[in-house]
Amino acid sequence: MRLYEQRNNPRSIQCNYCYKTGHNKRNCPTMKAHWDANPQVHETYDHDSVVGVDKTMFPTQYQQWYGDDNARNEFRSHWQYMKTRFAEKPKARKPRKATKCGFCGEGDHTRRNCKAMKNFVYVLNETNRGYRSVFYDRFVEGLGLGAGALIQVQPQNSEPTVAMMTSFPTDNIMFTNLKSRWSDFHTKMNVEIMLGDRKFERNLFDGAIYHPNYHDEFNSLGLWSAIYGSWGTIQSVVSPAPNRPTKEWFMGQAPCFDWVVKKRGYLYLMHEFSTIIKEFYPHDDLREKLGGEVYGRFYR
User: Fold this and answer.
1) Which of 63, 67, 158, 202 is least enclosed, having the fewest CB within 10 Å?
2) Strands of 198-203's sheet in order across
3) Are strands 209-210 and 228-229 parallel, antiparallel or unpaired?
């Protein structure tokens, strides 16, 4: 097909209006000139009064067959196209959208000055403090986990042996550790373990601590069940970490949850975190901070 064979040759383009090569009708200077010269036809089909449209619009070789009537016919057949392309269009004034907060869904304000969002950030931060307090008592002070702790591990197809926990990043300890590892909100707490000359990482909240009666006592583990497993890497703590941080220092680390509330709405986040908030929020003003409607919806 010629059109395909000459697709890369710009001179093969032929205008469907004036029949000249090198451009198409979208960029035809003759068409635009004819339109500008005949404002009387811009709104109505008044082609009897068309001026300046004659056979000179065509290439010389076409003019021996095409006359002025052919030129006027081309103008008439392209009139609707020209009107669509060249006529000034009234600028539609878009109705102003009502202000609506992307976090709480209420009107008359945005996330920038949403009181519910500020209160919820406070709840998340205080929940995290409560969580870190329990974590410290249970795993740092209770089990002795931390950098430098000697732990018993059991490599695959090997006897139990002693390894060292060489890294214990406390800034990754937050209540989102308890979310499923497939959740958008899960935070990994990867500890680093040195076994002989081999170093490897393990997410503490992926069944890393061995629990001998895991299946029998699953329900008693509650929210902490994610950290225990029947095939856990850490069998026991042989010697606690020698330089464990004080609880005061440990509680002083507080991540900022401002980014969370910019990504999701109020109800979405409550569906994700309501159980954890109820478990670890350390104050008795939760109804006041969340608002009676939201509180009643999730904590009946």
Assistant:
1) 158
2) 198-203, 190-195, 161-167, 150-153, 234-239, 209-210, 228-229
3) parallel
161 close to 152: Cβ distance less than 8 angstroms? yes
Smallest CA-to-CA distance from 151 within 240, 18, 19 is with 240
Interval 237-251: pLDDT, tens: 999 999 888 999 998
145 vs 237: CA distance, rounded Å: 7
Place of tokens 């010389």: 60
Helix runs in 28-174, H state only: 29-37, 68-77, 79-86, 115-135
Between 294 and 7, the higher pLDDT residue? 294
Q: How far apart are CA 65 and CA 76, in angstroms?
A: 19
Q: Is pTM, for the whole model, over 0.70?
A: no
Q: Give the separation between CA 154 and CA 187, rounded to whole angstroms.
A: 26
**Mean pLDDT, the chain, as a whole number?**
86
For residue 290, pLDDT over 80 is answered with yes
